[in-house]
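Figure-free illustration: sequence to structure, shown twice.
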Amino acid sequence: MDNPPKVSPIRAMQEMLLASPVFKQAAAQYDRAAEFLNLKPDTRERCKWPKRLISVSVPVRMDDGSLQMFFAHRVQHHLSRGPVKGGLRYHPSVDIGEVAALASWMTWKCALAGLPFGGGKGGIACNPQAMSPPELERLTRRFTQEMIPFIGPQIDVMAPDVGTNEQVMAWMVDTYSVHVGSLEPGIVTGKPLGLYGSKARREATGHGVAFLAMLAIEKLGMQVKDATVVLQGFGNVGSYAARNLSMNGAKIIAVGDATGAVYNARGLDTRQLMPYAIEHRGVAGFPGGEAIPAEELLTLECDILIPAALERVITEENASKLRCKVLAEGANGPTTTEADAILEARDDIFVIPDIMCNSGGVIVSYFEWVQALQHMSWTEKEVLQKLESMLAASFREVQTLAKQKNLPQRVAAMALGVQRVAETKELRGLYP
């Protein structure tokens, strides 16, 4: 019997990642930007693939005395522009392809915003809703211990994501600090204020989504106070985006999450909906609106549609049915490659691509990191002013390039981010 042809480890890794639909989507977006930029072949390959893929098993003693093994991943896409930055998610569907895609998007997001970071992402395949606080603490501390050789304030700085929060970050700070023998608040961002977190970090991503959606509405010649809004996802991002838009006069007509969807043509009262969703762990049953099928949410007629949950929710099947004027991507990768092609052909929806739209979180994470390193603090007003200034600058840059080169918004945003990483790679050269 003939021996099968040998496959190099690098090629095997590439094939494994491309087998993931999420990473394949991220790679297709990158390839399109790289093609537009006409990158040198060597630079194009170096920028595309992640530098490090780290997978670890995490043994945890459960409350009933049993031992359970969890599998965790951390991908560090690029360290050329500084330490990698990106969230840590706890979710049952976490896999290495998803994590690698999210790390890639974070690289372009940081570069587009002008931050001195590369992209990173991590995740543990678990169901945090089914775990007790002591079990989550043991999981977090053991994962942090397993990651210590690969993290640090100048190497890899994690942050909250789906299924994680300030408390998880606090446990990580403590575990790492015990290891090094001194308090190191710069090891993560999204910490509680009592551990040198930043004011406005919790609402930063949602605030930024709302701010950019309002810029887009005004660019279309509309008034924010007349705008109607639909949100898919009402966690940290969706709820604060809704609050900010409501405060500026927009009408939130529908909201949905994993528990269901609610609708009110006269507008949902977000001041009541936010505490209700926290108490009931979802929006289903909210008395200020009527229940609607979740599958109808994305195709409701509105001015601003905000997908703020997980990736790949706008697909080839529903893209032609969207009835919004602005698509503000609060989630990472919510629009598939096939859906993108449909939206471009329609040319009647102003798309705010995810790497710009949800960058408020990483921008304020950068502020938090700087404050921790310099042992200083800024007021909430200062943080939000700096955030809006940086978002507005990115918005202008993307609009300018899109208009000059007749590019879709996503390609323009990706091209700006990819170009900055490519320039850094070429300036630094290749170490022998």
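We now fold a second protein in the same way, so the two outputs can be compared directly.
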Amino acid sequence: MTDQPPTTGDTAAAVADPVLLTEPREGVPDTIDTAPALARAVEAVAAGSGPVAIDAERASGYRYSARAYLIQLRREGAGTILIDPLPFADLRTLGAALDGVEWILHAASQDLPCLAELALRPTTLFDTELGARLAGFERVGLAAITERLLGYTLEKHHSAADWSTRPLPDSWLTYAALDVELLIDLKDALAAELDAQGKSDWAAQEFAALTTADFTIVRNDPWRRTSGIHKVRGARALARVRSMWQARDELASRRDLAPSKVIVDAAIVAAAQADPKTERDLTGIPGFRGRFGRSHARLWLRALAKARELPDAELPRTSPAHDGPPPAHRWSERDPVAAARLARARAAVTEVAEAHNLPTENLISPAVVRALCWTPPAELDGASMRTALAEHGAREWQMTLLADRLAEAMSG
């Protein structure tokens, strides 16, 4: 780790008059969807050299699953490869060919889970989005940093497309190929920028953590995230939201459709408020007049009846239970001392982040700061704070920058 603080501003300057990139340099390759074609691609990747650029396209907002519907790769000597993963149980032969090869991804945490489902797991990686954040760039989207560092503009018209569509349109495949076209060059430019700022080791620690991270999110009472639920009053009405949400989730999972494609959150909230008991009353509610509202009316009415028949002891709490600290806006009434401690800690984090040209959330998770301030270490000194930060998953560079400063701030 560097002993000297990094520079306080990034050195990269935006390139004037960026060039619009509309086609990959070798054209758009045929999509691989057969075993023989996959075998040839694996052989080409294995014979290539240097890191591999990799990306995945999902169908977020269209499908229930978060699986990959297209895999894009680019490696020196192999060129660009597009793989349709649907015909294959997994891509473990490709994973074996990439064993020990550095992966370059943009926003790796978004793609690593669906790649792991296909037996593709990196041993080492470089995340260009995270690298841009650590470098202090304000805009960290792929198109923005490609334009800034390489002078090329990427079209992003199909970023929200339904990638489960078959056959995939030619324009979509062009877009997908361009996503990895310059990723290796972009990595080199960002690595130079991070080195100039003295942050290369910080980035290496962050990237190493990504290779072993568990991206599984288990939420308590996920139905409470229903948009508009704040309009619903009373435990019985909340039970109706929960029952309707669960019915929708099961149907969406069976059909592999995004829940919003079945019925929207607003419809669940409206039904919870109105508590309709007949199909006519149900389909009179906006949101239940479409395909899934009408054809599955009995499902929705059963869900409402189930909530209606619940004993009081099984009704949900009117406010969610918290495993950790309460919401920060309630600290002043619950524990004024902790609230003051949190204010000082947040100010200290902001000060350190600004001094090192970092987003505060990349310096330390706000949730970790809240947890430490609500239940601080027994001894508020640098050594104890370092131990506490490590228990919350902080990396060495974060502990070095923050342990003493947080201990000082929290002790007042």
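Summary for the second example: Confidence is low (pLDDT under 50) at residues 1-8.
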